[in-house]
Amino acid sequence: MAMTKPHWQAEKEENIKQVDNYLIKPRGLNIVWGNDERYWKIPARGTEDPAELVQVSWLEVTGSVELKAGKGYELTFDVGLAEDAFGWKDIQVFLMAKVGKKGKYKWTRVKLDQDQNNERVTIPDKQKLSIDVPADTMDTDLHFGLYEVWSGKWKGGLKIYNAKVTATA
Questions:
Q1: Residue 6 maps to a domain
Q2: What is the pLDDT of residue 116?
Q3: Percent of the chain's residues with pLDDT above 70
Q4: How many domains does the chain have?
């Protein structure tokens, strides 16, 4: 019997570049435990369906894209919660990003509202996560992610439609 890897590995062709902006579809993200149907449902290739979290205690969804030096960007995720979502009460997720492997992370916390069942929202909605790529940097890869690994609580029902990296100027 062949052993499969438990984590979903990003398919780079699912990262859509439009000038200086990126749209990263669910299949273009790395998802811890994403290759195990007990924990995640990964959408079929070519669909607009979200990745759906069945249940995990360790939420880690990451990606990377190459940016242009000397520009500013914002990171957002389009997400929703299913009607049967659980484990999000009093829990915050973190959006984190850094430029280059040795860069310093910038982050923001977001509370998902379980009263917005089946409603697609952009997070963060108020305080955007801004990333500046210094003009003199050599490693312009943006490493980013959506995390909730600290509470140890089981959670489910999160839908991830995409991540967006948008140039600010």
A1: no
A2: 65
A3: 95
A4: 1
